[in-house]
């Protein structure tokens, strides 16, 4: 395992880092995604987390790992969702002494050239750095209008319900400092789909994390089918609504208590 990055390599000041790439039926993308990540930031390792893809993605990842020492593969028995895959990756990285873990999609939508900037933000003091589509300098390419509208509306609703200032709360391209992650009570996380990103963003804000948003250009996947579906959308909408009402109720209780004390 490579844990001695060249100090002259961009992003290396963040410390030993691993890029976690969850996969399910990504045989057309996995080789190019891993290669691009390795080339985009020579100081990092890559962990492919495969949920027993029936299309052979896991076997392709094994073949890559056999010829490249910086690549590792974590095989899981069944498809359990994005959240569970990343939680497994966090545990794997912590056990092996990494300081930073990066989340990156396998489908080519995240540009590996942005990896050094995400890691540099961690090196400069952030506990969470987010590749943001929705701050100045960020953008989305090749998305259908309805999908862009859904993403923007989800962000607006989430920020309003939870009182968040993070602009891209659903972003999937992000880096965490692993010692900070331990503060988030990860054993209580049960978000399955893309709601996982909202869940951890919300937990990070409540924990007082220093969060940095880095503008990125997000590009629609090169090949294969998107994993987004109605169940994933409903999960996010339901959870954010529940969390939001609970958050507002706590605010009201605190305001009421302060008012009683002042009387």
UniProtKB/TrEMBL annotation:
The keyword Amino-acid biosynthesis does not apply. It holds the Pfam family Glycos_transf_2. GO terms for cellular component: membrane. Signal peptide: none annotated. Residues 19-184 form the Glycosyltransferase 2-like domain. It comes from the Bacteria. Keywords: Glycosyltransferase, Transferase. GO terms for molecular function: dolichyl-phosphate beta-D-mannosyltransferase activity. GO terms for biological process: glycolipid biosynthetic process. CDD domains: DPM1_like. PANTHER family: DOLICHOL-PHOSPHATE MANNOSYLTRANSFERASE SUBUNIT 1. Belongs to the glycosyltransferase 2 family. This is Dolichol-phosphate mannosyltransferase. The lineage of its organism: Bacteria, Bacillati, Actinomycetota, Actinomycetes, Glycomycetales.
